[in-house]
Amino acid sequence: MAQVLRFSFVLCISLFFVFFVHTSIIFQLDLPIFDHLIVAAYLINCILAILIYTYLFYSRRKYHDQLGFLFMFGSMLKFAVFFIFFYPSYKADNQLETIEFITFFIPYVICLILETLGLIKILKN
């Protein structure tokens, strides 16, 4: 349980820092800071990453040989969430702008990196 809490803490702190940098850059570019579902993108990616990591952590003994596939399923789940909840809003004007893509992609990548590092730690133990 401590490992799950540590992962969650590191993930939340990392995403908070990246969110601050991300919104600062948007502000410097004189663009609307909270457009394109930026808060939802960070929150949903964070929640999904914690849920996926927690599932992997508690499945490590029973499904040790399948953890990689479970991890990939988690990534597919995140893409499904993107296409169900974010993509329709982003494509409402028949264009997927770079800022819209980056708004979802940055927290996705941060979560993916931290989940991968977390999975490596699980597999080592």
Automatic annotation (TrEMBL):
Pfam families: DUF6168
Protein name: DUF6168 family protein
Phylogenetic lineage: Bacteria, Pseudomonadati, Bacteroidota, Flavobacteriia, Flavobacteriales
Keyword field contains Glycoprotein: no
Keywords of this entry: Membrane, Transmembrane, Transmembrane helix
Annotated InterPro entries: DUF6168
Keyword match Membrane: yes
Residues that span the membrane, as ranges: 7-27, 33-55, 67-87, 99-120
